[in-house]
Amino acid sequence: MIINNFNTNEKVMIVAEIGNNHEGNFKNAKKMIDLASKAGVDAVKFQTFKVEKFISENYDRKRFEKLKKFQLTYKEFKKLKKYTQKKKLLFISTPLDLDSADFLSKISNIIKIASSDNNFFSLIKESLKKKKPLILSSGMASDKEIKKTLTYIKKNVGLNFLKKNFALMHCVTSYPVDTKFVNLLSIPYLRKKFKLSIGYSDHTLGNDACLAAVALGARIIEKHFTIDKKFSNFRDHSISADYYDLKKLVISIRKIEIMLGTNSKKIQTIERPFLLSSRRAIYASKNIKRNSLLSYENIDFLRPGPTTIDLDYEKIINKRSKVFINKGSLIDVKNIAKK
Q1: What was the pLDDT predicted at 320?
Q2: Could you tell me which residues come within 8 angstroms of residue 87 by beta carbon, excluding any fewer than 6 positions away?
Q3: φ/ψ (deg, to 5) at 286
Q4: Residues 40, 43, 49, CA angle at the centre, nearest 5°?
Q5: Nearest 5°: CA angle at 187, between 182 and 193?
Q6: Of 231, 260, 289, at which residue does a domain stop?
Q7: pTM score
């Protein structure tokens, strides 16, 4: 599967963010791909790293040791990429060091730059060297900082790449994000400001924020995913969707896509049968003699309609009838004098 345009209006890309919820277990990683595929997503995403090039062992030993256990090998990631392809899903991963960026530039369908690294230009440059499609998360960055990063990307790969092979994700870096900080209006704001495809990387509990994001124009939805929310005490499990949550999310997003329709306003086919029965027309409320003035005293606005008469009362009042009109009859424009 090839992605060459994030701006497609065909459907929203739904990404199951597996991240490190496999906890270094290759079989768990494969099982999560199976479940994500069954739920109906378009892509799965991992994090790829060499922990010694990512975390300082001296200054954060606890985190270093935990992520060392969660680390998958490049060989295992190659196998996961093939397995993902077998399931007809896109393989996405976030590089967390320069070596991993180089590795992913060769095997990943799409590369995702984490919010923590949206100002790490060396990592971004390494990720871009094969011009693979790129997703940039915007957490912890102001619009000015985002502009600076986009300028750097444009300088390296050109404007055409940004328009066709790039997406910017609205994201709030907190785990989980409290409702009052979700700020989903950033989605239309970023789309208008940068004229790029905008997605949403979710850290909230539940599906509400993702569904609202789609309604606001997000073209990619990334949701953390786990086998079991109580799998371990690793934080990401508790804020992630399980299979049933993810399945509901996919179904709801596809339904919203249908509801959103097209960017236009016209009379739809299913409305046309109601035009006659639901619109109003002008009827005589009593017998109206020839040359009589029309007024509220002798007309009613009733269903069914319409006729060729404008229903604006000001355009009808004090016009004279050219013929005798029976009470209850429909009044047509040809029976009303112009002056």
Answers
A1: 93
A2: 33, 34, 37
A3: -155, 170
A4: 140
A5: 135
A6: 260
A7: 0.91
